[in-house]
């Protein structure tokens, strides 16, 4: 008996198949020549699909919100980015997946995919690699290397996709198993006189792929170009319309979680309870998990910029600084708000808060001019110093712009902005001195942190810490504050906190 396996879109030549029929993931059709029948067999898939999770994905989506065609477009754009005018040069690009990591014996951390790999493949499985190869963006192919079948591992961890199904599930040219990577790369290198091997040496996310690539390069005496991440990040900097929708939803989920946290805040509760509220509300809103360990800092804890202990009891009269966001189908939000534990700002707290808020609003308005993130930071240094001086926060009257900027850098030691996307601090190889363009998403987050030993401010401000952070999308003709639903005006915060949690 001879069996020929074909996917549904390749079966017309055998059967006059109805082109409107679609194949459900979880089954494949196999053509049995001697009986001229199509038999159903199982397709193993290691991640949600439209057919298994229709509440998450639409037809033709590889991951929620992103279709196969977009992944192919991303691959083509990456090839266009690395290929020079010399058309006789053959390029091989190797992008590894992440591996599962363990907190202790057999106890894994929640898995998170390597962002560049997910961006280019849509594959959410461990121990994989994507290889793009060709001489131009119009003449290239893609091979996805997946884990070999391992029934024992799948008994514990669930099914994984098969190499034979890679083209159907992910839209790549073909699939192979990971142990074939070495021979595959060697074959490609030896069959082309002029060849460039691209691989990110700076971030070794998978030891097997790293050893394989370096071994093949050494054996074939070929140089590894390790700037592939630069090219990936330049592409990821521009968010497509589908990515913008995911980012918008991520910010909406996080904003609602902040409102719930504000409503639930009570003196005598703990930072941990607010952490739990935000985590719960984000997950209930559809997010997979929080985008990073959140800062929930009451009182003087707010002066520790990356305070993540979240264990202190919240006292009446304190401010609470919360910096949190969620990851929604691979895309992160990042929001900061500061509010009073008892629901009412004191005059001193309100003075410092409104000075910070006025600066943040000015900086967001500056984004219309499409200057750089560094320009926003330079503007913040002067504007924040001026706002604090006018609010009589400083003991001495400070007027000189240089002195105001110096004081601002002391009170706000972090940058005012960073790119945002698949990673919280997204596209790390892209400098902050470039002009922002349509499709960019970034934060605007001025802060004021006054420790108890500060000699430049009046005593009533000592110990206060405030940060206000929003996520900004640059559109063709304007900007959009993706986190606009998260309240930040004094009257809005106080009104929300006065509403019973019931």
Overall 3D geometry? globular
What do we call the CATH topology of the largest domain?
Creatine Amidinohydrolase
What's the β-strand tally? Answer: 24
Largest sheet: 6 strands, mixed
The top level CATH class name of the largest domain: Alpha Beta
Percent in helix: 25-40%
Beta-strand fraction estimate: 15-25%
Structure in words:
The protein is an alpha+beta fold and 502 residues long. The protein has three domains: 3-42, no CATH class; 63-236, 3-Layer(aba) Sandwich (Creatine Amidinohydrolase, Chain A, domain 1), CATH 3.40.350.10; 241-498, Alpha-Beta Complex (Creatine Amidinohydrolase), CATH 3.90.230.10. 33% of the residues lie in helices and 20% in strands. It contains 14 helices and 24 strands. It has helices at residues 12-15, 68-82, 115-121, 151-157, 166-170, 181-190, 207-219, 228-236, 241-264, 271-284, 347-366, 373-390, 401-411, 490-498; strands spanning 3-5, 27-32, 37-42, 61-63, 66-67, 90-96, 102-104, 107-108, 129-136, 139-146, 174-177, 195-199, 224-225, 289-290, 295-298, 319-324, 326-328, 331-332, 335-340, 441-444, 447-449, 465-467, 470-474, 479-481. It has a six-stranded mixed sheet, with helices on both faces. It has a three-stranded antiparallel sheet with strand order 1-2-3, with no helix packed on it. A hairpin with a 2-residue loop joins strand 7 (102-104) and strand 8. Helix 6 runs parallel beside helix 7 (207-219). The longest helix is centred in the middle third of the chain and has 24 residues, at 241-264. The chain is globular, with a radius of gyration of 26 Å.
């Amino acid at each position: 008996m001879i069996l020929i396996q074909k996917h549904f879109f390749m079966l017309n030549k055998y059967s006059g198949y109805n082109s409107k029929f679609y194949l459900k993931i979880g089954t494949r059709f196999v053509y049995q020549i001697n009986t001229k029948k199509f038999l159903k067999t199982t397709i193993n898939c290691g991640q949600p699909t439209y057919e298994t999770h229709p509440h998450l994905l639409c037809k033709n989506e590889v991951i929620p919100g992103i279709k196969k065609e977009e992944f192919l477009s991303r691959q083509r754009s990456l090839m266009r980015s690395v290929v020079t005018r010399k058309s006789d040069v053959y390029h091989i690009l190797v992008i590894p997946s992440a591996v599962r990591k363990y907190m202790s014996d057999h106890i894994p951390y929640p898995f998170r995919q390597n962002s560049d790999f997910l961006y280019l493949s849509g594959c959410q499985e461990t121990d994989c690699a994507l290889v793009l190869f060709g001489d131009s963006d119009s003449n290239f192919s893609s091979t996805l290397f997946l884990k070999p079948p391992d029934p024992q591992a799948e008994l514990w961890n669930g099914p994984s996709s098969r190499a034979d199904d890679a083209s159907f599930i992910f839209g790549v040219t073909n699939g192979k198993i990971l142990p074939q990577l070495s021979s595959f790369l060697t074959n490609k290198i030896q069959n082309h006189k002029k060849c460039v091997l691209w691989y990110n040496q700076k971030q070794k996310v998978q030891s097997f792929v790293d050893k394989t690539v370096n071994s093949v390069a050494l054996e074939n005496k070929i140089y590894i170009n390790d700037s592939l991440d630069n090219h990936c990040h330049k592409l990821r900097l521009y968010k497509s319309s589908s990515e913008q929708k995911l980012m918008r939803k991520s910010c909406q989920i996080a904003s609602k979680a902040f409102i719930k946290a504000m409503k639930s805040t009570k003196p005598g509760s703990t930072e941990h309870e607010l952490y739990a509220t935000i985590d719960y509300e984000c997950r209930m809103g559809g997010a997979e998990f929080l985008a990073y360990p959140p800062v929930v800092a009451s009182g003087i804890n707010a002066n520790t910029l990356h305070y993540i202990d979240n264990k202190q009891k919240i006292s009446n009269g304190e401010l609470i600084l919360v910096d949190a966001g969620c990851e929604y189908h691979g895309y992160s939000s990042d929001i900061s708000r500061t509010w009073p534990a008892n629901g009412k700002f004191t005059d001193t707290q309100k003075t410092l808060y409104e000075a910070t808020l006025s600066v943040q609003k000015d900086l967001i308005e500056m984004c219309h001019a499409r200057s750089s993130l560094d320009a926003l930071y330079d503007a913040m240094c002067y504007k924040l110093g001026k706002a604090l001086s006018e609010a009589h926060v400083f003991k001495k009257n400070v007027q000189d712009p240089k002195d105001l900027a110096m004081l601002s850098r002391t009170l706000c030691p972090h940058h005012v902005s960073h790119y945002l996307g698949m990673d919280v601090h997204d596209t790390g190889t892209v400098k902050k001195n470039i002009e922002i363009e349509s499709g960019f998403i970034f934060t605007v987050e001025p802060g004021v942190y006054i420790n108890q030993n500060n000699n430049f401010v009046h005593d009533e401000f000592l110990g206060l810490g405030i940060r206000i952070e929003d996520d900004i999308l640059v559109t063709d003709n304007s900007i959009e504050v993706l986190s606009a639903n998260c309240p930040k005006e004094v009257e809005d915060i106080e009104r929300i906190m006065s509403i019973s949690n019931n």
